[in-house]
Write a structure and sequence with these properties.
This protein is α+β, with helices and mostly antiparallel strands. The chain is 46% helix and 17% strand. The protein has one domain.
Length: 127
């Protein structure tokens, strides 16, 4: 069953801060915990020192990466927070092709890790 992030009181509190002040402050502890949990499930995962928590690992014959963000943090095809943009630049410099990077919010990584795993599935078919 899907569990919406706004049902988490901490994310709801952050939404209230966005409505009051116009920005979100990333929760690095929660993001780092989410990336560490994900990395612990993969023997080859290497947690990276990047602006947004991330890890690299091999799928098929090539590097892939997971970047963890705040659920309210901007990221799509046209808009990305500066923190995520910096992280993607570092990962690209490390040899991870942009289309082999999945950006997911910590809530999805924590509560629905299979959704994240499924996002990597097409990469294993292309490798």
């Amino acid at each position: 069953m899907a569990y919406h992030p706004l049902l988490d009181w901490r994310v709801a509190r952050d939404l209230l801060a966005v409505l009051r002040h116009g920005w979100v402050t990333p929760n690095s502890n929660r993001e780092e915990h989410a990336i560490a949990s994900w990395a612990s499930m993969r023997r080859d995962a290497q947690v990276m020192e990047t602006a947004a928590p991330s890890c690299m690992f091999i799928i098929g014959q090539k590097q892939a990466a997971l970047v963890v963000k705040h659920p309210l943090e901007a990221f799509d095809q046209n808009v990305a927070s500066s923190r995520i943009a910096k992280t993607l630049d570092v990962l690209t410099a490390q040899g991870v092709e942009p289309e082999r990077t999945v950006v997911a919010d910590f809530h999805t990584v924590e509560m629905s890790p299979m959704v994240v795993k499924e996002a990597f599935a097409p990469l294993s078919r292309r490798s």
